[in-house]
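A common beginner's mistake is to predict each chain separately and then try to dock the pieces by hand. The better habit, illustrated here, is to supply every component at once so that their relative placement is modeled jointly.
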Amino acid sequence: MNPKIKTLNIGIVLVLTMITALVSIGWYISRPQSNVLAENNYQQPVGESKESGLNQPITQVESKISQTQTVNEVTVELTSAKLIETGVQVELCYPTPDNGDWYPTPGSLQYGTNEFLPDEFEFISEEKADGIHTGKRCVLVRYWINNVESITTPVQVTLLSYWAVPREVPPCENIMQRLDTNPQAKAYGLNATCSYDDQTGIAVTLSEHSPSIVQEEAQQALDEIVRGEVNGPWTFTISTLEK
Amino acid sequence: MKSRILRIFIGITIVFAWSGFKTPYVYAASCVHLSCEDLNPNTMGCGADAVTSGSVKILADGGNNQSFVETRKSSACDAKWARTTNKSGGNRYAAASLRYGCQNYCSNKSVRSPGTIANNSTVYTVMHAFVATPTRSCGAVSVSGPINIPLPKSAGSCTSAN
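With all components supplied together, the output reads:
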């Protein structure tokens, strides 16, 4: 080929490539970005600011008390336990199987012959599952105890289970997003179809799975995801309460 | 030299084209700020990025006592609403009130189930504009009903301010 024509051709290709790149960059920047799914909305626990004025009988001070409990191959971590003005506050972290909205079902707090039901909980951090890795959610659970000074250690707290509360989106959208971000579903190559009816509820049907697993195994995995509940209980015995 | 530059530009083009066409979750919120007032967060696409605002209050429910009420908020829609979840272990009447305004949360958006709802089911109010609005959410889960709304402010059945 004539060297001049060859140079011209290369020049044209170069210019076209540059234009394409610039248009791509411009289009990418101009399009709306997807919303961030995770949020850390940590707030100071109610009444915590007044703690310094209290005179508690339990004086052990420890920056962090970390314990883990594994039940059914699921490990839950207790990362802190402290006295607050209104009672006891514990921090629990649990693994989330997918990017659903996973809520804890905390059990009672017990010491001696006393038993207290949880009063409230608050999410403090979250790493969302992304289809490759599972996620992690940490929550503060508070127990209302009238006479804080009467608390004696050891104290026992339990996380009964945690479950995926449906988001305020169409039910099938919720379940398909969870399926899409579940590492086990990805590993099993699970695909499903979903339909929803006001009368009959949600119906999720397995449409495809990896040939490396049998149909029953794939169906069981899908059923677990749809059920959206991880059961314990995970029970922790706390010998030291932070003040 | 020119072919090297060409390869670099082709590489850049491929990277940006891939980034542009890659399909993330796109949440199409159909309202924002005041245009969300009194609308359903589900049908307006506001539930997609919704998170809990502040603490979740656990309610007595005549069963497991694991039902709860919370304030939900959407940054995309800049709006909040209250949601009550029946986790009693059985069918229950349920209600929620999002309280806001005045110095004592005198205004509200409220909802109640006309009949019982199943365990693990929720009821939620319509939206109130602006996530920065100080709110409290009150909830009730009961074996009898329908529950009277708006729900009163009480420490036992309402979240703290959020």
